[in-house]
Amino acid sequence: MNALLVDDSRLARTELRHLLRAFPEVQIVGEARHAGEARALLLQTQPDLLFLDIHMPGETGFELLASLEKAPHVVFTTAYDEYALRAFEVNALDYLLKPIQENRLAAALAKAQAKVAGAATAARGAASAPEEPALPPLTEQDQVFVKDGEQCWFVRLADIRLFEINGSYTQVYFDQHRPLIPRTLQHLEQRLDPRVFFRANRQQIINLKWVERIEPWFSNSLKIHLRGGPAVEVSRQQSVRFREMLSL
């Protein structure tokens, strides 16, 4: 299992590297002091696991994750405990408080190994399974059935302004409703009309026809305000694609 360490403190990186020596199944493929270095190393090394500090010069760990189209499994390492809830909202595997305890590190690595092994098994199964016919794309005028618990809706796609990851489900925004559906954004992206629905970041797909206003955001990215809310931060890479797609 390959791991990348991202922390602006050299001492913290050294301590973590020392702790990881007790786990021979983990190979450290690089270290980064800030988000810019981390972004380059992520592309270069393609690690399975990212040990990520939150407070760093320039971008925070959360901002780095929001800018990535694809991220490895993440374990946050920080001296602050107030960001734990937000960490799990972005699907982090674990949240380790400094100074890191070896038993907590072992638990985090066990979670990571289970995820990596599961992904490898799924990939082998997908390679050997016969291909299923692709479902036809949906237009904005199509109506879709949405069920959340005992409640059901039959809603036009044109009336849905946002799809957003919420844990292992996707939350659907239309009218005043916020039902959860057992679908991934990857599945939805394959079915939706790309001229209408835009993948803003790893966690959100927006309906372009619900855009109310756009403002420049950090690191040359964009922030899009939807009618009826909420505001959505577009990743740096997708901000470039958004400008190219909608410019004359």
TrEMBL record:
Magnesium as a keyword of this entry, yes or no, is: no
What positions are modified (4-aspartylphosphate)?
Answer: D53
The entry's protein name is Response regulator transcription factor
What residues does the Response regulatory domain cover? 2-113
The organism is Hymenobacter lutimineralis
Going by the UniProt record, its keywords in alphabetical order are: Phosphoprotein
One Pfam family this chain carries?
LytTR
Q: Which ranges carry the HTH LytTR-type domain? A: 146-248
